Target: Histone-lysine N-methyltransferase ASHR2
Amino acid sequence: MSLNTPNSVLKVEQIQGRGRAIIASQPLKAGQIILVDSPILLYPASPFSSPFCHHCFKSSSSLLSCPNCNYHRFCNSTCLSNALNSSHSNWICNALSQLQRNSLLLQQPLERQLQARFLVAAYNLAINTPSNFQILLSLQGSENNDDATIASAHFLHPLISSFFSHPHTELFTLQLTSSLLAKDKLNAFGLMHPFSENDELRSVRAYGIYPNASFFNHDCLPNACRFDYVDVNPNDDRAFGCNNTDIIIRMIHDVPQGREICLSYFPVNENYSSRQKRLLEDYGFTCNCDRCNVESNWSDNESVEENGEEDEQEVMVMDDEEEEEQCENMEPSETDNNDFPHAYFFLKYMCDRTNCWGTLAPLPPKGNAVSNVMECNVCGKLKSDDDDFNVDNDKGLEGEVPMED
Ligand SMILES: C[S@@+](CC[C@H](N)C(=O)[O-])C[C@H]1O[C@@H](n2cnc3c(N)ncnc32)[C@H](O)[C@@H]1O
Model:
């Protein structure tokens, strides 16, 4: 099976115990852009009152209001007119206007309000873009959900189905609502606010369903990572010619043909037990990647030095100079058989900026030459392989040529 993108260097294969997986169909280079994916559905992370454009999610000093509800706002007339034909159709405009006045819903936790917002966007897709709704239905996630998702479906379905009219009343069932919620939970990506060092956590501006990127499985030491540039204009070098709501997947290091390409579903600094808990509760699987296999043998009470970690709070960060010197001389192959094979990964590919926890990938190669400038996928910091050298981000990436897929 191939991805629904032209000239893809990737293919989709079924792997026992992992479902569909993305495989390199040719050798891939560090920094190479392997996928640019556009969302089939986006919804704001603050469900009913986002200060950003409700269509493209850019921040803007002046926003135009929807002429019907006078409530949802758009950054310019193009976004407004595109939205009126898609993400803010008459049906969704009416549904949102009623939902945001529903006191029962407004008393619910934020997570459930977001689920309501997602369902309205998903059912709007079914009504306005049935082919994209079929793509959403083909993604992982079924009606056999965890108890919390089933409870949400029971609460939200009657509310949202009151906006349907014939023939949708028969088609849009409780089971469908439940399976849509599962698909959102397993597949949604967050489009992030630009990083600020003062925020401990970089918050999400909007959630999106990206049909091709949804096939990437998780690995706690990923070989690719995703970038997004929500506030950057398409003609800015940093956006590599993409739309601002696209996500761009780039290789962290070289991989041979036939290797599975994986992302990490969350920052790589999380410790073993919190990763395992999150993957089981949120994604329904037990991770047995190389890193988890090594760390499963570490006792919680063992000292950090014994485990090869430097931080008692089990955060995978290395700032100890001696340890860094030791690791600097290691190649990945040398670390394969020791107790801390990921030391090299943390040193080379984890951002060292305070509170960032992002992953570094080289800028796209020029021809065959891998760039020695690494970009952080969270804070956007640029740093050279040899030494820290911070490029003035406002000036863009002069001379860097994006690779085609
Ligand atoms: C975003 S989807 C990835 C694509 C999915 N495999 C499919 O068939 O559509 C996330 C789901 O993939 C599976 N998955 C992802 N990473 C995995 C891993 N490392 N081991 C086993 N299953 C994994 C889990 O079922 C998870 O809920």
